[in-house]
Write the structure tokens for this entry.
Amino acid sequence: MERLVAAVLAAGVLQVLLATADDHYLLSRIAFGPCANQNAPQPIWDAINKFDPQVFIWLGDNIYGDIRRPFNFLVKERTIGPWKNAPRFIPSSSSEMLSRYNSAKNVPGYLRLRAKAKVVGTWDDHDYGLNDAGKELSAKTTNQRLLLDFLDEPQDSPRRKQDGVYTSYTFGPPGKQVKIVLLDTRYHRDPLSSDGSVLGDSQWSWLGKELRGPPSAITIIGSSIQVISNLSGTTGPLFYMESWGRFPKERDCLFKLINDSKRDGVFFISGDVHFGEITRYDCAAGYPLYDITSSGLTQAVEKVLPSPLRFIVRFLAWFTPSTMRVKNQNCRYRSCTYGEPNFGAIQIDWDASPVNLKIQVRDINGLPVTGVDISLSALQAWNRTIKAGQDQRHCTLEVKLPWIVRYRLAILVYSVLALLLLAL
């Protein structure tokens, strides 16, 4: 216990040193992850600590702060089905949010990580305060303060004075700089069905300055929700997931900003969906844009079923069409998704010529389940006179698939249900 206390005290000193030395800190190992239920066991920190990251990035749902009510469909307040008349999720009080943050902050494995790595992050809906919530949430100002306290943000930080938790960091000496841009996809977000704004005017203005600013060898854009993948385009009308693809105009603006900024070395990291995958879009900039999704540290889609039935989740993941998912020999399963607890790992080999990036989604034991090796030269637009996306592979958006392919998951599920009803 004394060693743990000493490590925590040292963590505060380390955070200060790193914060003042960003410009010269050569960054070669980064870990990231979202979706950590403070009430669930969190053994995955052992694997993260073994990876020994210099920086760890929270991607949201750092706690589950809202209250999830049970499925009810035969009582007065029904929380499921077409007859639903009550919300399934409701906000909790600020004191309860604080209590949950304190529980999360004192998980032993996380304490060990804080003692040796710089911890940064953004939020998603459950630590923002309410499932799927956007700018309408009244408690967002208070909850912003609670998140920044959890992240040990200095009291004089600009993040405490602005509307939203977006920010950026730059590490490394000239020529080997890594820029980490963390977006806030909650504070200013319009309703899901509106095709409105995700970031809001002030954040868009800030992001434009960040991407048009001084160049960096690598720029990592952290989004709590997926940027490249739009599985809602193929899982509907059964269910819909949040993503930038639900806001097609806004996502087009994001891609255009990256392309117009002429910034090389950009890729995304994301979370939210409770499984891991890597996606790629070749039609946005002068080079492929990757999105490495890790989700989550405790929450995972396969955990909803008993172990003998988890093959059903894997089959459905394989059967659901995805035009953007990267499928290669590094995938553990045929679907190239991973539905158990996981975290993201980025390794940068600065000594390689050209510089090499090894980006992986890793399991609870630290073993890779999917990954890509990317030469930094492949993330540079050598000839911007060529139209973005020419002669590239991952260019067909999910919503542009033929309807028989796009809706095959719904067709399968409804067909099975129809057969069961006929049998009964």
